[in-house]
Amino acid sequence: xxxxxxxxxxxxxxxxxxxxxxxxxxxxxxxxxxxxxxxxxxxxxxxxxxxxxxxxxxxxxxxxxxxxxxxxxxxxxxxxxxxxxxxxxxxxxxxxxxxxxxxxxxxxxxxxxxxxxxxxxxxxxxxxxxxxxxxxxxxxxxxxxxxxxxxxxxxxxxxxxxxxxxxxxxxxxxxxxxxxxxxxxxxxxxxxxxxxxxxxxxxxxxxxxxxxxxxxxxxxxxxxxxxxxxxxxxxxxxxxxxxxxxxxxxxxxxxxxxxxxxxxxxxxxxxxxxxxxxxxxxxxxxxxxxxxxxxxxxxxxxxxxxxxxxxxxxxxxxxxxxxxxxxxxxxxxxxxxxxxxxxxxxxxxxxxxxxxxxxxxxxxxxxxxxxxxxxxxxxxx
Amino acid sequence: xxxxxxxxxxxxxxxxxxxxxxxxxxxxxxxxxxxxxxxxxxxxxxxxxxxxxxxxxxxxxxxxxxxxxxxxxxxxxxxxxxxxxxxxxxxxxxxxxxxxxxxxxxxxxxxxxxxxxxxxxxxxxxxxxxxxxxxxxxxxxxxxxxxxxxxxxxxxxxxxxxxxxxxxxxxxxxxxxxxxxxxxxxxxxxxxxxxxxxxxxxxxxxxxx
Lengths: 381, 209
What we know:
A: alpha/beta; 5-stranded mixed beta sheet; globular; B: 33% helix
């Protein structure tokens, strides 16, 4: 039995999970249109960008380390430190495993090294420094699976807890936006210059966002000590489309397979909502509607959180698991910010207003470049 | 859990070894090492030439491993996974992409290059080629570790996953330097198969051509 003991989100909508969830429930969002001159780029972009000074000052207020950290590392450490403080566990113990989820880490150092050593651009270097900061004795592995990284990091942590007997797992997801990442998505013509519109007839593309998010899980032999205000891991799976590296299977083959593997049909009636990937690109949202339809989950409310904070890449799978868990415990299904007019190919139930949730579980879906798809489900006791 | 090594493919800058035996690679003037390997294998996959070097390295190793254990490329493989790990992630191609955006007056980002700035694309290329529809995962660590590789494969074979076969290994390409150790694994072993354990992983990683 693996259950969540604490969490944290750092984003434009706040520096704690509670603050982020509360702001989303009140209908606030973090994105805005950014002047391309900031990063010396040709086109403007709509994104949730964190204030660097705010991160640095918050980091300085908790850290007494002499090491100089990058913006990406400060963000990841800050989020993990806040979650660890709440969990009240000893991060120095060999019973604690750390896993880092990110797609590009410190890649912005390729543009400008900022005085850091050249090895600093390697993901494992950041992972090691984060582990060292908390004086954890285990190697910190990095899950780098494009957009599904945050869910694959959780599934790796659960596997290692089960096979190697770790008692606690600290799963950190972080992503900062650089010219590197933004220019790439622009070259794909994948970005919307307004707030994105998940599952909408007029959706034209995604928004990007910066965030760090941390989940801390505990493994127990029984469920006696599991508190009422948290979530328990029930099942999850990753499945590949074997179809295309930069586009999903039209009919949601891999995602459908992942859902079928994660969740048995007998458990369908426990699911109060589906937190979809819902990037608001034409292909992704249609594909998800196919997979949900093929799974027979047409009547389960579906939401996407991308309208609130954009696609936070390596942080997304962790951030959205946290927000969904807070909503589940609050008996609430968050509305799909940005959605106005239904517009996907298969009949699914998009949740358009905050709504009472009378069931005990949720399922999180996520898909990405490389043809990977993941589904993971949780229940409250 | 017991798994067995069905094939072990090692690619270095000098050699290609399958199950510890050196394969003859015809070297043509003016071609890169990876293209020479591709031509020597006699395969037809024009998409290979669009790939970055990390994907090319993984693609070639997977081709050799699947052929070595008699898997038909075109058969659907629902109970197969592909789980890879390395140190440099996609940095080799990241540096190439960076050159296209470094200067505002020489700015030409291309989706065909950007897509390979994701480390896990190599798992996707292998999954497409061999119709692998189980798990695909990519991880990053500081250096090759037989114990991590063993743990990743064992996790990938957890009974709840219903996976019976796997391509699992280390696929690294950076600065014209190739370092690949890919295994095809199965839960079903035969008499002469090596068991999946740390000393056998090391045995194949250390063999010289």
